[in-house]
Design brief:
This protein is mainly α. 68% of the residues lie in helices and 0% in strands.
Length: 163
């Protein structure tokens, strides 16, 4: 099925001369217009620097794996911000512990959801009591994990806010 607005546009375009057709189609397109004029980097620049400056540039490059020397020098020349990534190796163990806690809490939550589905499936009171006891036991497993999570978060927040 054709959209009525598209049909009207086609009818209007048939009456235009061929030279104006491209301009009209260009003005009627609904794509995003590129307002920025893209500057071509078509001039090659070669330079020499002292060993000390070269080592500084290499040190900056080592902290940003996605950058190349030409891009780094270009950012410096145009006074653009240079991104430097740092990694706190002391947080590696904490991140592993948080990942384990997340996985454990997620699996307990999945178990509770499965038990709840069984609870709601059976109308008998005795089965509902059985599944409620199992769900409560699973729920009790979460409490120490949550306490451990709060402990890690409070330690992290103290380190973060003290810096």
């Amino acid at each position: 099925m054709l959209h009525t607005a598209r049909c009207i546009i086609v009818d209007n375009l048939e009456n235009h001369p061929v030279s104006d057709l491209k301009k009209t189609v260009k003005s009627l397109t609904m794509g995003r217009k590129n307002d920025r004029v893209k500057k071509l980097l078509n001039r090659k620049l070669t330079t020499k620097v002292e060993e000390e400056k070269y080592n500084e540039l290499i040190a900056i490059l080592s902290k940003n794996p996605n950058e190349k020397m030409s891009g780094l020098v270009r950012k410096i020349l145009y006074n653009r911000p240079v991104t430097i990534y740092t990694r706190d190796l002391t947080l590696d163990n904490t991140m592993e512990e948080l990942a384990k806690l997340r996985a454990e809490i997620r699996s307990i939550g999945v178990n509770i959801n499965q038990i709840t589905r069984l609870f709601n499936t059976y109308p008998e009171e005795r089965r509902k009591q059985f599944y409620a006891k199992i769900a409560f036991a699973e729920y009790l497993k979460i409490e120490p994990k949550i306490d451990q999570l709060f402990s890690i978060i409070s330690t992290l927040s103290k380190r973060w806010l003290s810096a």
